[in-house]
């Protein structure tokens, strides 16, 4: 749950800063790992002894996704290297799961006892409803 809360907070802040609450179609599939691996990681955000390593991309899907991992590391460079090694060993094909209306997750690796997990998220809604910061923040209260 720590991964999901950190991931949600970081992603919410990123989405707010990019005004990314435009309506997108609900995802029918998660991004393919091959596309995520091609994109790699471009950002490292430190928080409470962990790093959130992430990349924002469409990964050849109709949605904009944030794919990320949380892990412990001494620096952002070390965190990116560890995350890349973990990513290269993943081989799952998750299906999208709607956590709250308009908020979709794809879990590639469940959070382990060290707090390491890998998840992609997007904000999308087929019915044209506005999905904004309050709806995203609801997830953090769970």
Characteristics of this structure?
142 residues, alpha+beta, six-stranded antiparallel β-sheet, globular
User: Into how many domains do the coordinates divide?
Assistant: 1
Shape call: globular
What is the topology, as strand order, of the major beta sheet? Answer: 1-2-3-6-5-4
Q: What's the number of extended β-strand segments?
A: 6
Structural class: alpha+beta
Q: What would your notes on this structure say?
A:
The protein is α+β, with helices and mostly antiparallel strands and 142 residues long. The protein has one domain (2-140). The protein contains four helices and six strands. Strands 1-2-3-6-5-4 form a six-stranded antiparallel beta sheet, sandwiched between helices. Helix 1 (2-18) runs antiparallel to helix 4. The longest helix has 17 residues, at 2-18. The chain is globular. The N and C termini lie close together (9 Å).
Compact summary:
This protein has 142 residues and is an alpha+beta fold. 32% of the residues lie in helices and 27% in strands. The chain has a six-stranded antiparallel β-sheet, sandwiched between helices.
Question: What's the helix and strand layout?
Answer:
Blueprint: H1 2-18, H2 33-39, E1 43-47, E2 50-57, E3 65-71, H3 76-89, E4 97-100, E5 103-109, E6 117-123, H4 133-140
Antiparallel strand pairs: 1-2, 2-3, 3-6, 4-5, 5-6
Helix pairs in contact: 1-4
């Amino acid at each position: 749950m720590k991964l999901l809360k950190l991931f949600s907070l970081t992603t919410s802040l990123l989405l707010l800063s990019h005004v990314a609450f435009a309506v997108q179609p609900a995802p029918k599939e998660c991004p393919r790992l091959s596309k995520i691996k091609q994109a790699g990681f471009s950002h490292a955000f430190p928080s409470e002894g962990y790093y959130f390593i992430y990349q924002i991309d469409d990964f050849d899907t109709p949605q904009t996704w944030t794919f990320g991992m949380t892990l412990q590391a001494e620096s952002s460079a070390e965190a990116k290297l560890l995350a890349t090694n973990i990513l290269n060993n993943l081989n799952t094909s998750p299906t999208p799961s709607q956590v709250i209306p308009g908020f979709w997750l794809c879990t590639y690796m469940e959070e382990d006892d060290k707090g390491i997990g890998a998840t992609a998220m997007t904000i999308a809604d087929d019915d044209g409803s506005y999905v904004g910061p309050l709806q995203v923040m609801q997830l953090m209260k769970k």
